[in-house]
Amino acid sequence: MTTTPRAMREMETSRLPSGSQTVGPFFHYGLLENGDVPLIRGTDAPAGQRIRIEGRVFDGAGDPVNDALLEIWQADGFGQFNTECAEASFDGFGRLHSREDGSFVIDTVLPGRVDGQASHLNLHLFSRGLLNHLFTRIYFEGEPGLDSDPMLTEVPEARRRTLIARRDGSSDGLDRYRFDLHMQGSEETVFFAL
Fold this sequence. Notes:
By secondary structure, the protein is mainly beta. The chain has one domain: Aromatic compound dioxygenase (Protocatechuate 3,4-Dioxygenase, subunit A, Sandwich), CATH 2.60.130.10. Helix content is 5%, strand content 30%. The chain has one helix and ten strands. Strands 1, 2, 3, 4, 5, 6, 7, 8, 9 and 10 form a ten-stranded mixed beta sheet that branches. A hairpin with a 2-residue loop joins strand 8 and strand 9 (174-178). The longest helix is centred in the first third of the chain and has 9 residues, at 5-13.
């Protein structure tokens, strides 16, 4: 059987990766009504220190991004991801959208350390105008291991602060943290290649 030039072209092009498409806009009715996400479910509070992360998403001009989708994935207070070893009252995964002023709130537990890494949340950011989603981490000010975390130490020291949530007091049994995401500009958050 001979292969025609046309058949050869079809075989070659059939193996090309799919092209990217712009991310968003997102339909907020598919997400939680107030934009916040509790990673704790049920009435039993999982082990670990309860925390609240409050922040905003900003574009390159410093304007709030009101339709970003944030996807969070983290370990529980013992450093276990959502597996058969994890606590039943803790999902460790959630999605939320930014509000009109770009703000968001995450209520969760401080993640336990995993494999020598400092406590952190994994965060995927989807937004209009992006061809691919962005990936970053949220670390926590004052937690052990920041100076030896394998991923954080790869970031130039002057830029590491863009990955660290700052302590902002405590109330109602929650330690509060502040973490803003800047998509571009002089305060741009460090984003990692996947």
